[in-house]
Write a structure and sequence with these properties.
149 residues; mainly alpha; 56% helix
């Protein structure tokens, strides 16, 4: 039974990520499906299992294949599943994705993407330094120039 819960959480996370990628809210998806946003929330957290018919409709409304929701499931079997915060969302990430999608200028989108990637890499390198993961052969990560410059 625990294995099935893992699958439900994985499918829910894939629904959430696709919805956020499109800049949709839970309310938006719920309206398209004719259900409450609370039901979408339960699907996304894996609290409620998505039926085959409903998953087909979700895939159709999100412009993806049904198989999309199962991608990565096999490789994830050995990973620990992170429990999700209330509502199963990371509001900051969803807000970032939604607002990023509203940008019309591809140069600005590219610059923001580069900035976020560099910040994430710096953060990861900092975590490695703090945990002692660096060895003597690894050069220190370059520091980001301040945005005000």
């Amino acid at each position: 039974m625990q294995h099935l819960r893992h699958i439900d959480r994985h499918v829910g996370e894939r629904i959430r990520s696709r919805r956020a990628e499109l800049g949709m809210t839970q309310h938006d998806l719920a309206s398209l499906l004719g259900i409450s946003y609370q039901q979408v929330q339960k699907y996304e957290t894996g609290a409620n299992r998505v039926s085959a018919g409903r998953l087909y409709e979700v895939a159709r409304q999100l412009g993806s294949s049904v198989g999309f929701f199962f991608e990565g499931l096999e490789g994830e079997a050995t990973q620990t599943v992170n429990e999700l915060a209330h509502g199963g969302t990371n509001r900051t990430t969803i807000d970032l994705a939604r607002n990023f999608g509203r940008l019309d200028n591809s140069s600005i989108r590219g610059a923001i993407s580069t900035l976020v990637r560099a910040l994430a890499e710096e953060s990861s390198a900092e975590d490695d330094r703090v945990s002692g993961a660096d060895d003597e052969d690894t050069p220190p990560a370059p520091r980001m120039a301040q945005a005000a410059e």
